[in-house]
Queue: 4 jobs
Job 1
Amino acid sequence: MIIPPGPLKVLVATQPVDFRKGMAGLASLVQQELRLDPFSGMLFVFRARRADRMKLLLWDGTGLVLVTKRLQDGKFRWPRPGDGVMKLSAAQASALFEGLDWSRMHVPRVPKPLHAQ
């Protein structure tokens, strides 16, 4: 998958969306329903009612990028449906995109150093 360099923030919309929506429709959904900026550089992940499909929306600095994926066999492991979004690490998002169980990945939280050593 082509992603911009540097740290990537990934947000998964927990409710299924209408998969007839394209870039403009998903960007509008991000703005109006999620109350977020679709042009922030964050990766937004959307699911269809059928758990075997996903769409990714990303502003790469030059334009909106829309990626669609359908698994040939099996289903993606999605977070439980809820309101709003769920934050994933870039590694968890990569596992989700590959059809793996992202929830088994441990993301260590490292505190920011107070000073250089």
Job 2
Amino acid sequence: MSSAAAASDWVHLTGEERVLWAGMPSLYPAIPTFAIAFVLSIFGVWLFRDGSLPVLPSWLALVLVPFGALVAAWAYLSRWSTRYVFTTKAIYEKRGVLSRTVTQIRFDRIQNTAFEQSIVERTLSYGDIEVYTAGTGGVNLSLRDVPDPKRANALVTTRLGETARAKRPDRSTDERPTV
């Protein structure tokens, strides 16, 4: 995915800020939903062709076909409309199919991060990243189903180190008291 294209309309970069990473949730967790949608559609066609609905008209079974398609479309759109962007100054998350919610956390506010993967997620190379900010008791941002979360979390950790070093005063110019 192109970083500039992914963040062009909802991430407003400052003069020195640049995109380090951009991504969207993995489609692997949606596979069961796609399978259920496919089975619903096939089952609707089978019921229509079989005609074994004695109390209902047989065309009613065909309602399962567009319903299955809608379930699959919603699963895809909800993942497609969720975007994650890491810049040199902040982490951004955008969610929403019909509406839009954008969350931004600056690196100078982040206290800690963690990533989590089940055995299935490790096999398929996706997982969750939790972002904790200073002054709060819990998770402030949960990035779900991030592709290669170990690499993405390492990028955040590296950037946090750089931010911490930039905030520290230069020790070479400190005046030392004489004894």
Job 3
Amino acid sequence: MDKKLATTIGAAARAARTRLELTQADVAERIDVATEVYGRLERGGMLPSVQTLLKLCHELHVSADELLGLASHGTGSTRSSAEPPPSPQERPEVRRLLRTVRQLEPSKVKLLGLVANALGRR
């Protein structure tokens, strides 16, 4: 493994993730890898597969050149100027809540919905 390349990719992924205000768990879920695996990638402990690199580019709104250290942020970004910024509902605490809710059984999700509706009426 090319340790320098792994470190470069990890640092660029971390910078893009924090710029988007995402957690490691958010990105891991979006690119379909375990949170621990994504954390190791950010720390430069592994190189992503080509498929994972492509998913990272898409989810972090960066070019492969930026992740590979060939371009700085802004010059190689895949995000178009016409693309709107992430919505306010995409806050980290909302994403964490959604991850937790997805793991609940249906009866508990229904109960949580009732509680949320009651809180919304206050």
Job 4
Amino acid sequence: MRSNKVLVTRGPADVPGQSPRGAAAPRESGFANGFADLTEAVDAVAAVDALLASLAASRAVLMESVREWVADQPELFDAPEVDAEEPAGLAPELVERLARVLRMPESSAIALIEESRALVHEHPRTLAALRGGHITHAHAQTILGYTDGLGRSNRVALETRLLKHARSTTPGELSLVARIERERRLRPERPTAAPVVRQAAAARRQRLSASPTGRPTR
């Protein structure tokens, strides 16, 4: 079987059925003739999908670099307005221009900036898995969403467990696992015994020890 990396990286002139300029040549039975078998065809799609994940990781690193560059040079930008609904420290000009070039609402641009910061500084293992194409961007977003707000030890433990599941589940399936695991970590520990229960047990032991027959006294 030919390597799917070859299928992804080779030039248009090397692709069966295409002219040197990349134009598709006429075929009687379709593009499927360009693959040896279905496994090779599916592997080629998977390779492109892994490349998309890697690009998402690269975008996150670049986005955080841009944010840090802007933050280090406040004299070049207007001072950010303090707003309870926006993360402090983001220059309005940065948010506005990113939203424009990425063709998304400013709220989505802010979310992307914060997601990139979390991946780089708080979730380097998730970032590495995304860069390696082992998980998708949707998996990474699920991990970030369900670990948000947890203490460091719980966050690291949950991230470790979710990364293990992410390699073989859909984002929806991972979300179900994440919800259960997060609730388990947030649930307060059950005390060994409530005060009333402990007092009742102590009183019962006293009655047993005071009875010559070993039976509870009333």
